[in-house]
Structure formats: C-alpha cells, structure tokens
Structures
1.
Amino acid sequence: MEEIKEKKKSTKVETKKAPVVKDTWEYKDRVYYLSNGKSPLTFTIPARHTRRYPLVWFDPEKGYERELRYATNQKSIFVDEQEGPATLKHIVFEDGTLVVKASQRNLQEFLAVHPFNNVLFKELDHQAVAEYELEDLELEIDAMNAAHSIDIDQAEAILRVEIGSRVTKMSSKEIKRDVLLFAKNNPRLFIDLANDENVVLRNFGIRATELGIIKLAEDQRTFKWGTNGRKLMTIPFDENAYSALAAWFKTDEGLEVYRSIEKRLS
C-alpha cells in the first residue's frame, strides 16, 4: 500500500518590514542673524512657551498645535515628547548673530520652527549670498566695460547727474577716471543712466545754456535763443526745465534747434 505523505502546511507568517524613514536633516554649522536691521550687543529670544511669548507649532500630521521648549538635555523640542527635568538655556544673539554648531541639532530644529524665524531673525544662506555677490560682481564688470567704451560726451552727461556743473571744469582724463569710479561704486545706477538717452540730451541742453547759445528765463518757464531772445519752448508746469528740453529736442521743431545748437558746439 502506497504510503501517502501529507504535506505539512507552513505555520510561518511572513511579515512586511516597516519602511525606513530617512532622516533628511543636514548636519552643518548654521549662522543666524537679526533681520530687523539692528545689531545690539546682546539680544535674547524666548526659548519656551509663556503667555507673553506663546511658542507653539502646528503639527500637520497630528492636527494640533504643539508647545515648544528648548532644553539642552532633551532630544525633542516638543514639550509633549520631553521626559524628566528640562535644562533650559537662553538663546542669545551677540552683535546681531548666533552661531549654532552642527552638533546642536535640537537648537537648530527649535530655531527652524520658532515664531520669530523670518520675522526677527533669519538663517544665513551662504549659497544665496554667493549668488547675490556674483550678480553684483558681474554687474560691476558690465558697468566698468561700458564706462571704458563710452564717448566723452556721454561720460560727461552721466557725471553731470552725479556731481553737477563741476564737470564743466574737468579735463577729459578726469572725466574718464571719475566715470569709471562711478561705474565701479554704483554700477546699477551707471547702467541705468547709460541707457537713458535723455541724460545725454539734458547734458546737451545744459552745455548750450552754459555757453550762452540758449537761455533759461528767470521764471524757469521758457527757453530762448541767447542771441535775440526769441522763445524756443515753454516748460510744462511742475516739470524739470532740462528734462522738458530733452523731450522737446525729440520733436520735429526741437530737432531743428538741436541740429543748429550742435553746429555751434562743434
């Protein structure tokens, strides 16, 4: 008789392993600074929840606000997770800055969710600072290159905006030097002025007035020919005289006057 062997059913139950939650916290030294424009010798921010300074953070997973407390002997920054006596410590900014070592993860986490974060203080983002500084350097290079290549009339026009009528007494070398310094020290304004055609036209009108080719009436309301006093244009109310003249030079009538003045200046 053939022996029938019954297969034993396995009683082993396969269990799925719980997913491993990856800790994405970046361990690094962090620098925080007061963002209100002030740098007192010392400035202390609250380190625990009180009536005067309610320190709570809404936990989206748990669905309620959790009380915050920074304690040097606790791993968690949440009061409901802390055990035993809590060793509290002041959080002090010195000369407007606070340096927190990579090993002080609990303090860094506490500052990340602190209600004053991005209100009274911010974390210094070195990458953002580098990008900002690079942008400034590139802008300075562009401005310096533009200043080096512009003609003397445009350089004079730009400098007149910055230093006024003193530019009239400067030599061409002095103008080139000062316009390069202007581009280096204030590149954004220099580029704006270099791209503004009215700056050159205003300077053109001022030079013509200084040389007596045209005259600005005492009431600052009209421009006239310097030779015969014939009126050229009326300045609109509440508008800068030379800005109005620059705009007028672009009209058909003004263009003829511009060409006539240009011949006398050359």
2.
Amino acid sequence: MGNSTFSGPVRSQNGFQVISTNATTGAVTTVASTASTGIVTNKYVKHVGFATGVTVNTTAGDSPAIGEFTQPANTIITDIKIFCDTSPVIGTGDIGYEVGTSSSGAQIVAAQTDEILDGGTTVVAHNVTVTSLVLQTQDGTTAPASVQYTDTARTIYCNITNTVDATTAGSFTFIIEYVQIA
C-alpha cells in the first residue's frame, strides 16, 4: 500500500481504524479505532491528566488549594510528576507532597515531607519532581488490588505540604499519567 498526502481535513462518517498487519501470516489486527462519535477506542493507550494551581500554605501545613483530578473508570495510574509553575518562598524549611484517594491522603504516593525542598527557602520555577507510586505486596499469599487502579471514576487529591510559613505561595501542577484498560 502506498503513502498518501492530504492538504485538508480527513473526514469519515463511519470512523477510522489504525491497523497492524502481521508480516508472516498477513493477519490484520485493529490497533485503534474511532466510532462515528469520534471517540478513540484503544486498549492500553496512555493518557495524561493534570491537577493545577496547588500552592504552598502561608502557614505550615497542607496546601490551601489541594489539587483534584478525576481518574476515569477502568484505568491504572502509571506515573505522577510535580511541575513548579511559580516559585514559592518560605523561611528555611521543607516542602513535600502526597497523593491519595482522600484529601491529605497518601494512598497513591506516600507522603514525602522534604522531597521538593529540603532545608531551603525557594524552589526554582520549572523544577520537576519525580514521585514514586505506592507499591502493593507482590509475594503475599493473596495479592491485593492495586491502589493505582479503579473500576469506577474517582477523585484523586494532590497535596503540597510545607514545614514553615510561606511568604509567596507559588504554584505547582501534578502531571498524572494513566492507562485505560477497557
């Protein structure tokens, strides 16, 4: 099959399909498709969501603007990073984070009290903090369900914590990667 180049919109009333052809057998497999609604259906496609505007508190403690992200049904969170949009300024102290299924919870990413800033006064804008997801027991007699998976839509709470008062709240964005299973 040849390549085609278009200089306008590609339109279809019956959707599109991306296929893969087995080089040995010639079998054709649909990798992704769209219905006439335009919604892409694909198993195991990575998506990205955001919780923005999470700030450092003017008094030590939890963020006054805990970020919220709605995790869609039948998805697994695979990665979370924290991006510093605007630099906060605090007295010499720590800035940390936690991510959970409840406000100020740490079920998905355990509380890290000083991983963004450890004994400092500011975080440089555009700093990226890489978090570690909570791991489930892998070798138990009964393997538990993963806290990163949900079969129904749920709210995920993203919190910034600080140990001393802030004079400038700054702003952080949580970048949440997840995979649709069904």
3.
Amino acid sequence: MIAETLAGIALVKSAVDGIKSAIGTANDIGDIAGYIDNLFEGEKQVQQQRTKKSNVGMADQFGIKSVAQEMIDAKIAQEKMQEIATMVDMRFGHGTWKSIVTERAKRIQEAKEAAAQARREAQRAQDEMMENIKTTALISIVIGTAVGLLFLALAILPK
C-alpha cells in the first residue's frame, strides 16, 4: 500500500521537477504537456490511494503512520498542483492553468460518455442478436413442425 502511494507522490514530484526545469525555455504549453500529464496522473494515484482500503489489514488501514502518510501525500500533491498552476499562469498568462483543468475535465467527461454510449450500443446489439436468434429458432420450429405434419399426413393417407 505505501509503495503505491510513494509511486503517486514520486510521480508528482518528478513531474514538478520536469516542469520547473523546462518552463523557462518552453515556447508553448506543449513543451511541458508530458510533465503536466504525469502531474495529473500522480495526483490521481495519490487521491485513489487515500480512498482505496481493500486488501489491507486493520492496522495498516487505520494506523497513524498510514493515515498520516496519506494525508501528507495528499497535501503535498495539492501544494505541488497549486505551485505548477501559478508557474504556468505566470509563464503563459493568467487563466492558462484553469483552461487546462477545464479542458481536461471536459475530455474526461466526454470519454466517460463515449464509453457509456459504447456499452449501450453493445447491449443493444446483443439484445438484437438474441432477438434474431429467438426469431430464427421460432421459424425453424414452425417449419420443422409443418414439414413433420406434411410427412405425417402423407404417411397416413391411403395410397
């Protein structure tokens, strides 16, 4: 558990270091976009680790060291995010960071909606396929019964 938290906070710290080293010479936001992606991913991992409590013992889950580490890592991640927000706004103009965060949230929402739509489409296709199978089976039964009755009628009729 602590190793996963360290991975998240380490990613945040390395992203911040990368942004700090590149922001002075960056011609546009694209020059540091990879670091920003890593910053968001690291922050996400830290937040997920705070809320993830499965597969850990009670001592690990509620221990002071665990709780303190999670809280401190979350605070550090928030501080680093704020620090980078200020640096990006100072370098590329006020509101740049807010635009990045807004666009990211919009894209995440669009991806969630697209995934939900894909699931609905897959379910609809599966339902349609099952309906086609039922229809085919019913037609086959009716034809089979009709052919069987025809043979039966021909066998019963006197020659």
4.
Amino acid sequence: MLEMLMVANSAFAVIKQTLENGREISSAGSAIAKFVGAEDKLQQDLHRKKNSLWTNFLGKTDNDLEEFMALESIRVKQEKLREYMQLFGRANLYKDYIQFCADARKARKEARIKAEKRKEHIKDVILKIVLGILITAMMAGVVTVLFVIAKKKGII
C-alpha cells in the first residue's frame, strides 16, 4: 500500500513540476498514467484486503486510519489534477480523461476475466490429459493381469 502511495505521490510531483515549468499538461502524460495506475492498484489492494476472509473473520484491520489517509491523499491529488486539467488543458479535457479512465478500467477488467477463463480452460485440458493417461494405464494393467491369469490357466 505504501509503495503505491509513493508512486502516486512521485507521479503527482512530476505533473505539478511540469506545469510549474510552464509546459502543457499533455507533456506529463506518462506521469498521469503512473498516477492513475497507482491509484487503481491501491484501491484494488485495499478492496481485496477488505474482502479477504481473514479480515472479515477478525473484523476491522489494524491500520484503518492509514488506509483512510492514503485514500484521502489520493482523493486530494485527484481533485488537484482535475483543477490542473481544467486550468491548463483544452476544453473538456477532464471529461474526456474521466471517460478514457472508465474505458481503460473496463478493458483491464475484461482482459483479467479473459485471462482467468483461459487459465481455467488450460487447467481443464491438463486435467483431461492426466485422467486419460491414468485410465489408459489402468486399462493396460487390467489387460496385463488378465493375460497373465489366462496364460497360467492354459487358456492362451
């Protein structure tokens, strides 16, 4: 959590410095991307932690205040970024940015779901192959035992 907060803080510092140096906000695109990525990762980590079985069993986490303050820090920086985009960017830049972020989150979620489905498919195929090998080995063993018994009784 602290690592993502540090990434977000450093990316925001780059955005702020870029604007203070008189450059356009578009020249801080990679820093904005890092800031948004760190924000998403932080929220995912906190959501995952919040919904974990262990946390639900124990009740509240030990560092609720730390988590709240991290999210509050991100919220304040997000608000500043909105102000920067409205002041130093083109018309409707922030609105377009919000739409782009929503589309990107949706695409990442779809990609994650697709990867999970692919992983499940691969597991199923491997399981079927292993079961096929085991069944074939058992059948070969049964045939071998029957052959040995038939030979001892003189049938063959």
